[in-house]
Amino acid sequence: MGRLIPALALTLGLLGTPGLVAQPTGDPAPALAHAKTPEGRAVALRLQFRKGLGTEGRYLPKAFLAKGVASSGWVPFESLSPEGKRWILAAFFPADLWRKDEVRHRVLYPDLESVWTLAALFTGHGQHYDRLMTENPDLPEKLREGDVWRIPRKLLSVDLGGPGLGLDRARPEDDLDDEARVATFRGMLSYAEDGAGKYAGYRLRKGEALYSSVVIRFTDRVDPKGVTELADRIANRSGITDVRTIQPGQLVKIPLDFLADPFQPEGSALLAEEREVRAEVRRIVRVEAGPTLKGVRIVLDAGHGGVDSGAMANGLWESDFVYDITMRVRRLLEQETEAQVSATIRYPGLGFKSREEITKPSRAAEILTTPPFAVDGESPSAVSVHLRWVLANDLFAAFRKAKGDAQKTLFLSFHADSLHPSARGSMIYVPGAALVPSSFALGGAKTGHVAEAKRSARVAFTGREKLQAEARSRQFSEAFLKALNKDHIPVHANRPIRNVIYRGGGKWVPAVLRYSTGATKALIEVANLTNDEDAANLRDPDFRERYAAAVVNAIRGYYRK
Q1: pLDDT of 59-86, one tens digit each?
Q2: Is residue 428 classed as helix, strand or coil in its secondary structure?
Q3: Does residue 7 register a pLDDT over 50?
Q4: 114 CB-near residues (< 8 Å, 6+ apart)
Q5: How do beta strands 197-203 and 366-367 pair?
Q6: Buried b (16+ CB within 10 A) or exposed e, 425-435
Q7: What percentage of the chain has pLDDT greater than the value 70?
Q8: CB contact at 8 A, 376 and 394
Q9: Is residue 142 classed exposed, middle or buried when 0-12, 13-18 and 19+ CB atoms within 10 A define those classes?
Q10: CA dist., res. 196 & res. 87, Å (int)
């Protein structure tokens, strides 16, 4: 290959070392620099928190731009040609050493750089951060100024003269539906016992990490704290001293107590319950409504809102962004179908409109009960949560009373989570039949004194109804994932359909699903806010519109035989 030093680096003349620029958003200020192109034109360079590296496009040579990219405004790193990428890296990080077999990168801005950012810039994709950490076992994941990170040639992207890694997506389970995928994962486990007790053994495949390929896949944990703690515990149980230096083929021992239901040993009650649900999914007859969705009653719920911003990470907050997607789904359903559509929540200053740009949290929101319930912090947050399913159940009851088909009722709640950063893409939760109560009545202190609570604050479910609800919701989830995949929207790589949330030492089903009387119901986690790529997608109004269209296509697909 020859030397890795970018040829254009020798023609560069930095007009000033990077400096910090004030930023009103609360994120670390971006770093700015100026450099000369080979033609001698001065252009600005910029490194932004979570957004990466970019350059001013006005005087940029055409050879520095990827095909079809306009030279106007700020041009992100990924829109540069290989020549442009090598140029900007050499210009912005002049202390880096480009050697024949590796790049040695010196951290200049620990508040702006991250292992994910380095992986995106040098290897071609942030998902390779695990491999980058493995090559630098003595360095902490939290970057420090002056640390030197080694990026061997074998990890470099093709654009930077390396072989290119790919994303390790060629797995036998990638193109399978949920049931077949889970069965494939189960087949990778072996069950045994040693001096410390019974365990399920899994041998890591090339490119897999303990966090994502073991903990998130096999144990139902997805929150950062829970994943990290359990990864350390499993590593200790398996005799692994450093989770970043695990080699392919390493036997990982997962204590049975931490296994998710589908991976429990043969003969266990939890596995029997899982298989009963799967059998019901295969038996149940799908309800048909036709492409216009005539006769379908849909209630859309945007999570959080008002004083409750929900999850926050990467300069984003959950409430406004999922509200925007929900409103786009509402608009598309009303414009393109004959379904009856309602929302549980409204932002008074915005109404049911979507936005191209979301710059700050909305502090006013109301649940659309009678009278509307303001999410202003005056009442416990649980009241707002419970009133969503109370309102939805009241709307479904009115629909059934008007001779509507009870099997054509759909409840969707939209959220965005803050998970371990290795998790990327959408997940969808369905109501696990085993965790739905047979009856429940909302106490007076949690009803908000609204008219709907007098009619619809009590629920009762037979065992059969609970089983069918989970089965129908799983059927919808499969249609949902197909629609996302068709539009190339990221989906969680391991088990995107789940029937429980495991957090805080226990497993549970969210109240909006647990008490909903809709025949089909699901809670959609649109994105993981702590994942840089998910966050960038959520910021993009075009992505939010594509996502809403995929949801509508999923609904159509679900109600079509």
Answers
A1: 899 999 988 777 778 888 988 999 999 9
A2: strand
A3: no
A4: 50, 143, 532
A5: unpaired
A6: bbbbbbbbbbb
A7: 93
A8: no
A9: exposed
A10: 55
Q: Which residues of the chain form CATH 3.40.630.40?
A: 287-558
Nearest to 432, CA basis, from 215, 224, 302, 278:
278
| CA separation for the pair 368, 300 (Å, rounded) | 12
Q: Is the peptide bond before 371 cis (omega within 30 degrees of 0)?
A: yes
Residue 1: is its pLDDT beyond 80? Answer: no
Q: What is the token pair recorded at 188?
A: 């990778």
Q: What is the pLDDT of residue 115?
A: 84
Burial classification of residue 172, based on how many CB atoms lie within 10 Å of its CB (0-12 exposed, 13-18 middle, 19 or more buried): exposed
* Residue 477 CB coordination number (10 Å): 25
User: With the CA atoms of 420, 426, 430 and 432 taken in that order, what torsion angle do they form, in degrees rounded to the nearest 10?
Assistant: -30
Task: State how far the Cα of 354 lies from the Cα of 333, in Å rounded to an integer.
Answer: 14
Q: What residues have CB less than 8 Å from 121, skipping those under 6 apart?
A: 52, 53, 77, 89
Phi-psi region of 92 (alpha: psi -120 to 50; beta: other; left: phi over 0): alpha
Mean pLDDT over 227-241 rounds to 92
Look up residue 114 and give its two tokens. Answer: 């991250």
* 487 to 74, 322, 553: CA distances (angstroms): 27, 19, 10
Q: Is 92 exposed, middle or buried (0-12, 13-18, 19+ CB in 10 A)?
A: buried
Please say whether the beta carbons of 428 and 495 come within 8 A: no
Contact between 263 and 189 (Cβ < 8 Å): yes
Long-range contacts, stretch 372-380, CB < 8 angstroms, 24+ apart: 372/346, 373/448, 373/450, 374/306, 375/305, 375/306, 375/307, 375/308, 375/345, 376/306, 376/307, 377/306, 377/307, 377/308, 379/448, 380/446
Q: Are 37 and 58 in contact (CB under 8 A)?
A: no
Domain 287-558 homologous superfamily, CATH: Zn-dependent exopeptidases (3.40.630.40)
Tell me how far the alpha carbon of residue 454 is from its chain's centroid: 37
Task: Identify each DSSP E strand in 256-335 by its residue range.
Answer: 297-302, 312-313, 316-317
Q: Nearest 5 degrees, angle CA 46-CA 51-CA 53?
A: 35
Average pLDDT estimate for 167-171? 49
Contacts of 83 (CB under 8 A, 6+ apart): 8, 63, 64
Mean pLDDT taken over the chain:
88
The pLDDT tens digits of the residues spanning 445-504 come to 778 789 999 999 999 999 999 999 999 999 999 999 999 999 989 998 888 999 999 877
First-to-last CA distance in the chain?
Answer: 55
Sheet strands (E) in 49-196: 52-56, 74-76, 97-98, 102-106, 148-152, 190-194
